[in-house]
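User: Could you check the structure of this?
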Amino acid sequence: MTKEKDKEKEETETEKVKDSAEIKLTDLPGIGATTATKLEDAGYGDLMSLAVMTPSDLSSVADMTEASARKAIFAARKMLHLEFEDATVYLKKRETVIKISAGSKNLNALLGGGVETRAITEAYGAFGSGKSQLAHQLAVNVQLPIEKGGANGKAIWLDTESTFRPERIKSMCQAQGLDFQKTLKNIFVARVFNSDHQILLVDKVIDLIKKGEPIKLIIVDSITAHFRAEFAGRGQLADRQQKINKHLHALMRLAESQNLAVYITNQVMADPAMMFGDPTRPIGGHILAHASTYRIYLRRGKKNSRIAKMIDSPNLPEGECVFFITETGLQDEEP
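Assistant: Sure, the predicted structure tokens are below.
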């Protein structure tokens, strides 16, 4: 009897996922085609983003009364079955997580198998530490079959510092025997000009997914460059942090709802109060630290090596590894 009950529960959970995936915004009370378009244009195109809104926010965005907004929100929450569930449901979700190879076996081991989907992986470090090199490697490897360390998917690259280089992709493709032109077509690159543009582009990822593009990786290189330049001084710090927080939560929702990986790079500063030890500190404060599922610190080592250190993870121990940046990509040994 127990096995039959477990099977029934499993089938019920599967039906819940199917139902929520098929529900449209127009299925909610008080939301017609025009209102749904307004919400999608504002970045609230899925059921979950609407379910976590407040009635006042929804009424202002969709130009509707708070009473109607409240009904729509409650209906969305009911359809998504937002209640307590036992941990076996989360175990099932974890079984769908894909690990994207970083190229280096040492780095993969540090990351618990690779850069994983349903998570934000942040790499911070000084210039030349290998952050963008890892991004290039992931943009290539995400296209590989799952059994070869990929995710059978495509990559989005938000380029805030003009770091994307197709020539680098070419050398990595040659090393793995991949078609260079085909690999480039599977990487969607956008040059980001300011923080508002950066936030808008994350909303546009949903449009690509709706068109059937199998996006499995979003790269933001770097996450803080424009925010740091546009919000200068302590007087604007609160506004900057609030804006970064909203941006990161949009990335978190995408990672979870679409089972994709988010890899972000971050700039650093020197802590003047640090008298001994490494004074390097990441930009973004506690908000960025809490938003990142996995946080690694990259720095230069001896003899052209790079050292990666796991700073924070919900399930992995602290540790370090050594890898090399070669002509063919990230490797464990010096060429």
